[in-house]
Design a protein that fits this description.
By secondary structure, this protein is mainly alpha-helical. It contains 4 helices and no strands.
Length: 119
């Protein structure tokens, strides 16, 4: 495999792993400090916003795992199976990667809305 193709897979995998780490960290941080954000006088909808944000981040994490599995499957294809082009631009990689980014941005947006509503 040529060096540029190897690097593209490395960079794509690093981005996916970074988004998984950020999503996991944001979930852990907001859960840890949620009791500080959600005082007894907070609106019930604030907790709902937090739960929605956490669920969206979990979806981002799952899509990231799916993308890593797709990259692995593309690089090490099953012998005798239907061959897939060795590229990071194939739909088997692009779809889960795009969904991961979409859900990550959505989770960030919901977290920001949650933070604004609780203050």
């Amino acid at each position: 495999m040529e060096e540029q193709l190897k690097k593209s897979f490395d960079f794509a995998a690093d981005l996916v792993k970074q988004l998984i780490s950020l999503s996991t960290g944001i979930i852990a941080l907001t859960i840890t400090f949620s009791k500080d954000f959600l005082q007894s006088g907070s609106a019930p909808s604030a907790m709902d916003l937090a739960m929605v944000a956490w669920c969206i981040f979990v979806l981002s994490i799952l899509c990231g795992i799916w993308a890593l599995m797709a990259m692995t499957g593309t690089l090490d294809q099953k012998p005798g199976g239907k061959p897939v082009p060795v590229t990071i631009r194939g739909p088997n990689i692009v779809i889960p990667s795009a969904l991961q980014i979409f859900f990550f941005i959505g989770g960030l947006a919901m977290t920001i809305i949650f933070a604004v509503k609780t203050h």
